[in-house]
Amino acid sequence: MGAHEIRLRLGGVSRQRAYQITSRADFPAPVADLAQGKVWTTEDVEAWMKAHRRDVDDVEA
User: Fold this and answer.
1) Tens of pLDDT, residues 11-37
2) Are strands 32-34 and 37-39 parallel, antiparallel or unpaired?
């Protein structure tokens, strides 16, 4: 999944917020860095969200 899909999965966060989240040291590493942007496996992103969703919500509040 790309950054846009991650934004949607996180509830429609801004591009800047998605960049902040995907740049975190504990966020999964992308599986590829294409001309259109980085991509991650859906499984990795969903597992991260399950473990960290409260952290993400707390920062946005």
Assistant:
1) 999 999 999 999 999 999 999 999 999
2) antiparallel
